Amino acid sequence: xxxxxxxxxxxxxxxxxxxxxxxxxxxxxxxxxxxxxxxxxxxxxxxxxxxxxxxxxxxxxxxxxxxxxxxxxxxxxxxxxxxx
Length: 84
Hints:
The chain has a domain at 1-39. It is 76% helix and 0% strand. It contains three helices and no strands. It is rod-shaped and about 80 Å long.
């Protein structure tokens, strides 16, 4: 193999390894974000199940958990007077 082709091969190999590292890091970040999104989804599913069971909405909230604006609006629409 000529020195030119060896240099070209080494350059391409270096770029490919750098690209692989970048893609692997991005995958790791996306997997973390996906896991967080899945946890949030199941928390919301649990909250919906509890709300549909006609329980007191204050008992659904965890200690120091705040209602979102949309949750407060929904409670006002349903006629609750006290919003934590």
